[in-house]
Amino acid sequence: MTPDGAPAAGSPDSERAAERVLERLDMPRDGVPPVVSDIATLNQVIDAFASGTGPVAVDAERASGHRYGQRAFLVQLRREGAGTALIDPVALPDLSGLNAAIVDAEWVLHAASQDLPCLYDVGLRPRLIFDTELGARLAGYPRVGLAAMVEEMLGLSLAKEHSAVDWSTRPLPEPWLRYAALDVEVLVDLRDAVCAELTRQNKLDWAMEEFAAVAATPPPAPRVDPWRRTSGMHRVRDRRRLAAVRELWQTRDAIARQRDLSPGRVLGDAAIIEAALAMPTTQSGLIALPAFNGRGARRYARQWTEAVTHAKALADSDLPPQHLPSEGPPPPRVWAERDAAAAARLAACRASMSELAGELGMPVENLISPDTVRRLSWTPPPEITEGAVRARLETAGARAWQIGLITDRLVEALHTQAPEPTEDSPRA
């Protein structure tokens, strides 16, 4: 058994759970509803959901990997007394009227932080949520995907073969709609099961604080220099080639936006990095690179070559800095050299938080943000007291339940001293 009484992985109890016969869900209990794509039908849905009772199960399907951006191409809802609604947000981009009808209800989502941004875009914003995925993490479940949790907690087999399809397809095939309707059909039952488990572990109050924090989080701001997240950037070691990555990324982004395609379908990250490293001056030289073997890579060879040429012609003063200025601490890998005392504090804080997370049966990142631990360890309060650490945690956005559990342990760990140098230690 784990500390919370759940069967440990590999134990006879877990093996018996794995051997149980699962009921496969193939069809929603009320059948597959038609897709709502006109105002008149949407108004009927609004009236039905306003008259319904209890929580509202909410889900959204995007076309990640197919279309540009992360907008929703189908919104699914279900409520007792209202049934299931499948709504086309392309035909109906403003669903704020529906939001008004259910805003006071608890919205049940799985991995809410993934779906909320695209729901905000169509006018849907909850006040109260229950996130079954986040709740499962706090309860210590090792597999927290929707299908895995439905199997574990409800004994049902939920097919997920349509999770990565192109949801911008119109009309949507009936098997896809069936899949989408089933997702919200199980959510409230899963919510009840997760809630019961959190209650059993005395973690429900913690979970409700986490859910409130997710619901209150504003839509994410645009990233600064998003091109710096290109996979393989660690290979680019000078500012001129960094400029080539930027120019290629921005060219790809403009083409992807215009064609409404996922950027990776226009040009892969590997091709961007390869072109930035090679800096070819001709189209023939560019498309001869091994990574330039796709249709998009060759179709836009002129634009890619122009991007590289532009990067080569930039004045030194216009080149991007190798690294963005950071208000945070340096990477932990350099702490031992730069500040041995900070490195010792970080090691002690990490060990203490990992131990406590193990005792509580949850991932350490759900107990406290790793970034908060790093910042505290690098620059602790001038006086490391319970009040000072508590204030720093509050400023960092830690929730009350987290602060109550970790403050004393962090105070103790932050008092850790650097080990005395030995004769073999390198001298400064």
Write the layout of secondary structure elements.
Blueprint: H1 12-19, E1 23-25, E2 35-36, H2 39-51, E3 53-62, E4 72-80, E5 83-87, H3 96-102, E6 106-109, H4 112-121, E7 128-131, H5 132-138, H6 146-154, E8 156-158, H7 174-185, H8 187-200, H9 204-216, H10 239-259, H11 263-266, H12 269-278, H13 283-287, H14 295-299, H15 301-313, H16 335-338, H17 340-360, H18 364-367, H19 370-378, H20 386-395, H21 400-414
Helix pairs in contact: 2-3, 5-8, 6-8, 10-12, 10-15, 17-19, 17-21, 20-21
Please state the average pLDDT score: 92
Tell how many strands the DSSP assignment holds: 8
CATH class of the largest domain: Alpha Beta
Instruction: Name the strands of the widest sheet in spatial order.
Output: 2-5-4-3-6-7
Q: Please indicate the count of domains.
A: 3
Oligomer: single chain
Distance from N terminus to C terminus (CA atoms, Å) equals 50 Å
Gross CATH architecture of the largest domain: 2-Layer Sandwich
Largest sheet: 6 strands, mixed
Shape: flat
Detail the poorly predicted runs. Answer: 1-17
CATH superfamily of the largest domain: Ribonuclease H-like superfamily/Ribonuclease H
Q: Give the helix proportion (percent range).
A: 40-55%
SS field, number of helical segments: 21
- Element pattern in H and E: HEEHEEEHEHEHHEHHHHHHHHHHHHHHH
